[in-house]
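Worked problem 6 (solution included).
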Amino acid sequence: MCCVLPAFNEEKTVAEVAGEAGKYVDEVIVVDDGSRDSTARVAANSGAVVVQHRRNMGKGAALRSGFKEAVERRADIVITLDADGEHNPKDIPKLVDLVQSGKVDIAVGSRLQNGAEKGSFLRRLSRAITTLVLRMLFDVHLSDTQSGFRCLSRKAIETLHFESDSFVAESEILIDAVRKDLKVGEVPVAYVHVGGGFPVLKETALFISLCLRRIIQPQ
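Solution. The predicted structure is:
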C-alpha cells in the first residue's frame, strides 16, 4: 500500500504530512513537481521515496508519475492526498476500508459532507459548478468531485487513463472511471482550509475544455 503526495514548494509541511501518512501505509511517495525550495530534500529526510520533475508540470503529471512509481513497487492500493496539510492522514483508514470492502474501486474523501464549505467565493463557486456539470454530463454522483484525498485499487490504477497535467486531472479521472464501469464512492473527511494561490479562472477554463474534449472524443 502506497501513499502518493504531489508536492510543489511544500517544504514547510511535506515532512509532517509524509510522516503521518507513513503510519498507515507501507511506503510514501512524494512527487516533487519542480519545486524551487527544499521540498525534495525535506521529503527524503522524512523517509519518503522521492520522484522529481525537473520543472513544474502540474498536479495531473505528478499523479501519473506517482501512480507509475506505485505500480512499479507493486502497491495493491494507492492513496493520494495533498502535501500542504489540507487533509488529515488519520482519515486514510476510512478510505482504505471502503476500497478493501470491494464496494468501490475509488474512494473519495468528501470535504463537504461535514458541512465544511470553505475557501474563496470564486473557488466555492467553481467547485459547485464543476460538481454539477460532472453529474449532469458524465453521471459522476459525488458531493466533492475536486477532493484530492482519494484511495484507488490496483485495478483502478491499471484501468484509468488521463492526460490532463493540471488540477482538472482529478475530474478527468472520475469521468474515465465512470465510463469504464469502475465503482466510485465517498466518505466524509476532515478538512483544513490552507488558502494558497489556486488559479480558479484558469482551471475553470481548462475544465470546460476537458468536458468538450471528453464529449467529442469519449475515449
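Discussion: The longest strand covers residues 27-33.
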